[in-house]
């Protein structure tokens, strides 16, 4: 299939960021995608991009700095992570603003600030505004023959991220008519926002820079020379196996492993609901890296977030949605007890919490409410219909507990305690709606605390759902893949969800999957350009 300077495996945001930077540096780049669809998980996303000290904020007069960003990362990271990840945090903070400026100058992407705060605004270095950006809509037509190959989403990509925030479509779907002229124009021009815009812009930029894309091409083996340097890959396409030579390096950016049932079950034991990523995320990159002696790390980390049931390409799928923070509802664990604020940005981390032996301590988990919960969102009822046995109803708390398999006395006590907090206007256990992020998401104090006291009562599972695992090849601060002894596997790089992500399950802001992913792709290419001659 030819010789190239750089082979990038995968076609999501990390992959295209790496490919674009390498190509703009004068290298001959090939991107291979095993499916028939370009864009990976990124194309399905809301395209929130968390980049501290970015030029868009600076041009708007918003103060931020790399130093503040690093202080923030250090302050909010899980205990013990600093020892292993601080060097990578420093590399991310240094490169992220440059990466965003590079993309803005070398693609059609037009990034705009999104009015969302850091979820840990009160922490050192936290900011109320300026670190979250997302692209303006772009027409798929600019992709030419690849326009029909861009992966579609379960999310409404006719809207931008900011429009989703401003219109609150989950609660007010009819509000979309307020922007009908924009929607009509986007329909006429085959345009989309969010992940559609992000990947349209990245792919167009790559094409303009001379990057070659090959779909339906799966990497099955990495090639090595006698000195163990990675020199390319053997790939499978249309039933044939061929070799691709990559003179300067191979970048693994294949996404997560959540669709490999065996790997997922091993690293994420316990109750499980849904997956919201492409089915091709089967751990190809992790397996390729391990096959040449790479250390796999952070394999128990993931983008965990509640998902509603939906269908995608004719099969059951997950739709990421904040449905657990509605009035007149709470979330409880298998013991019938609350364990987190329902408005918490990192509720997925609490759902996925493990004990010393790695066993989940809260799963299975349930959302409990009264009949008013069902009236808060027409979309919820629509999506719930995809799993008709998911929502349980009963006239009493005890009856609902029996249907869900929860201890009735504990659930009744939890709800009585919650109702008492509602009467006082203060959640003494988990302070729901009180910090900057939760107050923003609650849309006003009147929506923070509402009792559960009007039957019939409803309940449903809200177990672990995954939008992408975050474990993979351990890398250094230059995105070079490492062996267990810390030595570098020459010629091999990893980025995005295929690397051992230095920002794991505990996200530091909306967009802390995409922002770091693109940054690590950029870092990998920078390393190839400057250190691998």
TrEMBL record:
Cofactors demanded by this protein: FAD
InterPro entries: FAD-dep_OxRdtase_2_FAD-bd, FAD-oxidoreductase_2, FAD/NAD-bd_sf, Succ_DH/fumarate_Rdtase_cat_sf
Origin superkingdom: Bacteria
Name assigned to this protein: FAD-dependent oxidoreductase
Species in which this protein is naturally found: Mesorhizobium qingshengii
Domain FAD-dependent oxidoreductase 2 FAD-binding: residue ranges: 5-514
Keywords from the UniProt entry: FAD, Flavoprotein, Oxidoreductase
């Amino acid at each position: 299939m030819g010789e190239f300077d750089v082979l990038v495996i995968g076609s999501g945001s990390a992959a295209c960021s790496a490919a674009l930077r390498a190509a703009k540096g004068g290298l001959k780049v090939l991107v291979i995608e095993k499916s028939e669809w370009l864009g990976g998980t990124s194309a399905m996303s809301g395209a929130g991009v968390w980049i501290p000290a970015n030029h868009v904020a600076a041009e708007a007069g918003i103060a931020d700095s790399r130093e503040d960003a690093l202080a923030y990362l250090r302050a909010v990271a899980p205990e013990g992570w600093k020892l292993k990840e601080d060097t990578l945090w420093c590399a991310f903070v240094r490169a992220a603003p440059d990466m965003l400026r590079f993309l803005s100058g070398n693609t059609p992407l037009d990034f705009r600030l999104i009015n969302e705060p850091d979820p840990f605004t009160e922490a050192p270095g936290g900011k109320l505004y300026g670190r979250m950006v997302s692209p303006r809509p772009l027409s798929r037509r600019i992709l030419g023959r690849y326009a029909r190959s861009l992966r579609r989403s379960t999310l409404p990509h006719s809207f931008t991220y900011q429009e989703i925030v401003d219109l609150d479509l989950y609660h007010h779907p009819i509000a979309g008519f307020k922007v009908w002229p924009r929607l009509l124009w986007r329909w006429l021009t085959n345009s989309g926002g969010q992940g559609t815009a992000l990947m349209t812009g990245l792919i167009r930029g790559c094409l303009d820079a001379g990057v070659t894309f090959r779909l339906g091409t799966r990497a099955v083996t990495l090639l090595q020379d006698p000195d163990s340097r990675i020199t390319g890959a053997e790939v499978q396409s249309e039933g044939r196996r061929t070799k691709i030579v990559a003179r300067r390096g191979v970048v693994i950016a294949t996404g997560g492993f959540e669709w490999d049932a065996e790997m997922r079950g091993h690293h994420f034991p316990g109750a499980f609901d849904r997956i919201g990523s492409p089915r091709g995320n089967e751990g190809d990159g992790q397996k390729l890296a391990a096959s040449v002696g790479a250390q796999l790390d952070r394999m128990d980390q993931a983008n965990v977030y509640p998902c509603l049931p939906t269908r995608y390409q004719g099969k059951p799928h997950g739709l990421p949605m904040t449905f657990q923070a509605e009035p007149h509802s709470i979330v409880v664990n298998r013991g019938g007890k609350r364990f987190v604020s329902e408005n918490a940005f990192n509720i997925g981390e609490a759902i996925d919490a493990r004990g010393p032996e790695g066993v989940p301590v809260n799963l299975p988990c349930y959302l409990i409410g009264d009949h008013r919960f069902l009236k808060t969102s027409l979309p919820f009822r629509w999506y719930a219909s995809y799993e008709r046995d998911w929502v349980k109803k009963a006239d009493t708390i005890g009856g609902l507990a029996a249907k869900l398999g929860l201890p009735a006395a504990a659930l009744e006590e939890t709800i009585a305690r919650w109702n008492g907090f509602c009467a006082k206007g203060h959640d003494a256990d988990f302070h729901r709606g009180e910090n900057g992020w939760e107050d923003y998401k609650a849309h006003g104090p009147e929506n923070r605390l509402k009792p559960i006291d009007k039957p019939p009562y409803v309940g449903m599972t809200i177990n672990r759902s995954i939008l992408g695992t975050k474990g993979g090849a351990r890398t250094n601060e230059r995105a070079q893949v490492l062996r267990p002894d810390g030595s570098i596997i020459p010629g091999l790089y990893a980025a995005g969800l295929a690397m051992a992500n230095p920002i794991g399950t505990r996200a530091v802001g909306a967009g802390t999957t995409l922002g770091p992913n693109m940054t690590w792709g950029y870092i990998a290419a920078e390393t190839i350009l400057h250190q691998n001659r």
